[in-house]
Design goal:
The chain is of the alpha+beta class and 120 residues long. Helix content is 22%, strand content 33%.
Length: 120
Amino acid sequence: MTPRHSCLALGLATFTLISGAQAQSSASAPGHAGHGDPKPSTAQAGAPMSDAEVRRIDRDAGKVTLRHGPIPNLDMPPMTMVFVAKDKAMLEGLKAGDKVRFRAVEDQGAYIVTTIEPVR
């Protein structure tokens, strides 16, 4: 085998090993989009409400940034992130600083707010 063919064979073997390891780890690791199997979005109605504070609203894009507590149905710890509103009209009347309760699901890698209501 020539040195060129040896390098090619070594590179192909390395790629095969890495690809196999990545496929195995992503198949067995639950979590967020791109990190394993997506959570089914069929549990919308049964998903618990989570507490949050509105940080920003982009009404034109139908997006809301929430600093939220744990989201059990998504196995998500507290953090601040952007969600897409299922319906832009859901964002009417909300403003930065509002305390809310919301329900969210994952759909094809996007996190969707299906219900949001101010805390009175």
